[in-house]
UniProtKB/TrEMBL annotation:
PROSITE patterns with a match to the protein in the record: MDH
Keywords associated with the record: NAD, Oxidoreductase, Tricarboxylic acid cycle
Lineage, top ranks: Bacteria, Bacillati, Actinomycetota, Actinomycetes, Kitasatosporales
Protein family according to the UniProt entry: Belongs to the LDH/MDH superfamily. MDH type 2 family.
GO biological process: malate metabolic process; tricarboxylic acid cycle
CDD domains: MDH_chloroplast-like
Organism: Streptomyces antnestii
Main enzyme class: oxidoreductase
Gene (UniProt): mdh
Active site positions, chain numbering: 188
Name by which UniProt lists this protein: Malate dehydrogenase
Length: 330
């Protein structure tokens, strides 16, 4: 193997997303079939043994690309030299917990992790936050890493994007490969806005492909996509894991390897003020990627239907930002 291994840090490695994610990273699906990887697993102390068990299984797969696995409960160790960081471990909302309590508990995780990334990661670090509330956790980590370019902190809305692709394909009797330029705007929460007004289905405008059925859009498609996480929890008795891991793989793979010509993807990224989203908020946008960098797709016409929904999700992000400011987390 001649290429230098890429150091990939995964937090919450012993959790259910971690279990669905690590084997795919080690097999080359995150970065490419010719890119060797070192895995660094971060867990809390009581879960280190479980992480060791997962590492034993990774060894037992004899993945040719997997060079080395290190496990730690110290963020300074786990992020040392990290090129890619997948921040999956988070404090889940439990019964009776207010949003402020949740944000505060997650601040206790993402603030020190952001600082450890700042102090130890490689210069080319790319961060994806999966742990919820993902957009605001990304903001907290970013604020604690002033020496890292702000645009390296991203939040995952690719699962929402993938969910929207499948719902639209089902409605139009096509396949996901026929759909281009779909967008998730805003927060990874029930306020998110899956937008098909710019999308095409098998080469024709998506809105035509659904027969102009705005009722289906507002009463079926949007709530189905936006509330899918809750529907999975209801059905499975646990939150999405394999599909979330798959989306994390897709997010980083696209960031590193680029979007296809004529298409784009959705990523939660720091706003530069585009489309009226206040600067600095980590919000989902349509983006193209090339050479390891992303750009917001510019110049899209936003109709009234979309504007109201983007604004509602952005308002929620602003409220979350105000709450974590109030808590002194950013
Ligand atoms: P899980 O409870 O199975 O695993 C979480 C793991 O994180 C646990 O092993 C826990 O020990 C670990 N952890 C907790 N605090 C940590 C810390 N400070 N450092 C390192 N590890 C720590 O949860 P899961 O199902 O794997 O989900 C993880 C997160 O991803 C949740 O917040 C979930 O809501 C979120 N999620 C996000 C999306 C998305 O689309 N953005 C989708 C699905 C799930
Ligand atoms: C999902 O979208 O599946 C998750 O974010 C849901 C959750 O609350 O963990």
């Amino acid at each position: 193997m001649t290429r230098t291994p890429v150091n990939v840090t995964v937090t919450g490695a012993a959790g259910q997303i971690g279990y669905a994610l690590l084997f795919r990273i080690a097999s080359g699906q995150l970065l490419g079939a010719d890119v060797p990887v070192n895995l660094r697993l971060l867990e809390i102390t009581p879960a280190l043994k479980a992480a060791e068990g997962t590492a034993m299984e990774l060894d037992d797969c004899a993945f040719p690309l997997l060079q080395n696995i290190e496990i730690s409960d110290d963020p300074n160790v786990a992020f040392d030299g990290a090129n890619v960081a997948l921040l999956v471990g988070a404090r889940p909302r439990t019964k009776g917990m207010e949003r402020g309590d949740l944000l505060s508990a997650n601040g206790g995780i993402f603030k020190p992790q952001g600082k450890a990334i700042n102090d130890n990661a490689a210069d080319d670090i790319k961060v994806l936050v999966v742990g919820n509330p993902a957009n605001t956790n990304a903001l907290i980590a970013q604020a604690a890493a002033p020496d890292v370019p702000a645009d390296r902190f991203t939040a995952m809305t690719r699962l929402d994007h993938n969910r929207a692709l499948t719902q639209l394909a089902k409605k139009t009797g096509t396949t996901v490969a026929d759909i281009k330029r779909l967008t998730i705007w805003g927060n990874h929460s029930a306020t998110q806005y899956p937008d098909i007004f710019q999308a095409s289905v098998a080469g024709k405008p998506a809105i035509e492909a659904i027969g102009g059925d705005e009722k289906w859009l507002s009463d079926d498609f949007i709530p189905t996509v936006a509330k899918r996480g809750a529907a999975i929890i209801e059905a499975r008795g646990a939150s999405s894991a394999a599909s979330a891991a798959n989306a994390a793989i897709d997010h980083v793979h696209t960031w590193v390897n680029g979007t296809a010509e004529g298409d784009w993807t959705s990523m939660g990224i720091p706003s530069d003020g585009s489309y009226g989203v206040p600067e600095g908020l980590i919000s989902s946008f349509p983006v193209t990627t090339k050479d390891g960098k992303y750009e917001i797709v510019q110049g899209l016409d936003i109709n009234e239907f979309s504007r109201a929904r983007i604004d509602a999700s952005v308002k929620e992000l602003e409220e979350e930002r105000a709450a974590v400011r109030e808590l002194g987390l950013i």
